[in-house]
Amino acid sequence: MLYRLYKPEDFAELYAIEEVCFQPPLRFARNFMLRLVGSATGATWIAEEDSRMAGFAIVEWEAEAGGTAYIETIEVLPAMRGRGAGGELLRRLEESASASGMREIWLHVDESNSGAIRFYEAHGYWRQGREDSYYGPRRAALVYAKALTVGRK
Length: 153
Ligand SMILES: CC(C)(COP(=O)(O)OP(=O)(O)OC[C@H]1O[C@@H](n2cnc3c(N)ncnc32)[C@H](O)[C@@H]1OP(=O)(O)O)[C@@H](O)C(=O)NCCC(=O)NCCS
Fold this sequence. Notes:
Layout: E1 2-5, H1 11-21, H2 30-37, E2 42-49, E3 52-61, E4 68-76, H3 85-99, E5 104-110, H4 114-122, E6 126-131, E7 141-147
Parallel strand pairs: 4-5
Antiparallel strand pairs: 1-2, 2-3, 3-4, 5-7, 6-7
The protein binds coenzyme A.
Coenzyme A is lined by residues 21, 73-76, 81-87, 109, 113, 115-116, 118-119, 122.
């Protein structure tokens, strides 16, 4: 597996993964996703194998050093899961955020997404709270966060 930063020509392949991984109402709209991957205060990491995208992950951070970063999403194609790609993408999001001076990283995860919850807990994320109806009526999100080591390489 190879890991690299996003380029604009990746968008169609990236959005095809979003369509496989998430159904509405959890799926990001195309325009919202375009805005995320184009953000100047964030990073999008790509995992690929044999020149085909296997997954991607997006983090955004605050402009001021010492702030917090937010994981927008992390997605690996079903056939490519369980081989460490998600873990490596997560590590790279954390590294990008800490290199930008962020002290903490946090995220929302669907309360019913037990696989992703296990994944974040295994990577040192702690449950901070719960938001009712975050993803829609009666679809709660859990909030997880992790402290970052600023400037970590
Ligand atoms: C969460 C996700 C990115 C993990 O990617 P991955 O490449 O499988 O991750 P890794 O191989 O590094 O780690 C897999 C670990 O994640 C957990 N996990 C994640 N999804 C799982 C699933 N569907 N079933 C079982 N375990 C799962 C397990 O704890 C597993 O640990 P193990 O290796 O000890 O068995 C991937 O499952 C995914 O794309 N899910 C759908 C999209 C999603 O829900 N993203 C999170 C949005 S908040």
